[in-house]
Structure to design on (224 residues):
């Protein structure tokens, strides 16, 4: 089982739709969580951190469920410019460097 | 503006050749990382450094080496390129104590024939 798993998609949604992605992680000792965005043939860029109580940044909402070991990203009112791959990132401070990137979920927003 | 650059952006080489990929950042970040990205695998850590003269192996370090002689640069060397090392390579940096908030370079696409 991979340490961090994401549905690869693609998710095809119309403009204005609400879409949600989940990401599961296997290490219960994981301590910090993030979502990165990667455009086609570009580098990943930090989208937002994920806090235990959940957090919003405009149209984006991130949530953490420690009991079930998953994080989620909700995008409301999807825009064409939201089309990208969304990478889930999980970090556990169990010694050494342990930041794991998921393989990503592809999103296509259509006009 | 501060930035992180990689060179070359594209490289074609032959198996057995030594290849060095450059990474240069002007953020003055202590932490620097090298990843490779392959379809279905996501980003996998090759090597990382927490400061000058510090280097550490990541998840997929076999066949790769790095050195850190100054804060700005972390070159990645493929000792003897193999076809399995065909990939997109990303360099990243972050501030001390902020390992996960990483700033990535534009990537180098390497093809080993």
């Amino acid at each position: 089982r991979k340490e961090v798993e994401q549905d690869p998609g693609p998710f095809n949604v119309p403009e204005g739709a609400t879409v949600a992605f989940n990401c599961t992680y296997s290490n219960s000792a994981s301590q910090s969580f993030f979502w990165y965005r990667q455009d086609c043939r570009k580098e990943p860029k930090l989208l937002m951190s994920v806090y235990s109580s959940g957090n919003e940044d405009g149209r984006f909402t991130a949530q953490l469920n420690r009991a079930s070991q998953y994080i989620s990203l909700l995008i409301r009112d999807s825009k064409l410019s939201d089309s990208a791959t969304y990478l889930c990132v999980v970090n556990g401070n169990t010694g050494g460097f342990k930041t794991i990137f998921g393989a990503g979920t592809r999103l296509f927003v259509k006009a | 503006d501060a930035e992180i650059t990689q060179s070359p952006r594209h490289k074609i080489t032959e198996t057995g050749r030594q290849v060095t990929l450059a990474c240069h950042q002007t953020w003055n970040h202590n932490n620097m990382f090298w990843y490779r990205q392959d379809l279905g695998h996501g980003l996998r850590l090759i090597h990382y450094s927490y400061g000058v003269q510090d280097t550490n192996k990541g998840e997929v370090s076999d066949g790769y080496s790095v050195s850190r002689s100054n804060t700005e640069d972390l070159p990645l060397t493929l000792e003897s390129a193999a076809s399995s090392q065909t990939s997109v390579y990303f360099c990243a940096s972050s501030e001390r104590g902020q390992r996960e908030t990483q700033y990535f370079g534009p990537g180098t696409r390497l093809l080993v024939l």
